[in-house]
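call fold(seq) -> tokens
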Amino acid sequence: MEKILSQDEVDALLRGISDGEIETEQEKPEEVEGIRTYDLTSQDRIIRGRMPTLEIINDRYARLFRTSMSASLRKVIDVTVTQTEMIKFGEFIRTLPVPTS
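ret:
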């Protein structure tokens, strides 16, 4: 299959874009009627109480993870489920020990 552009032409286009000689279109987000963005970090709506669907998913994941790890390691693994809570990502990052990647 024949190349449409040579490598020199591709390099020239990339240089032109980075130097600002070639204008590019700015991507505009699509606006759909009836849909508005939701910010989970906003304090407008705080979820208090139980989240039964999320608890079911968490229980199933823990059970499957326990089974999978027990089979892989050939040892009995104990996985406990803790309470589900919603926190900001930044707060979660601050709880991690420093040498975490």
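Residues 50-101 form one domain.
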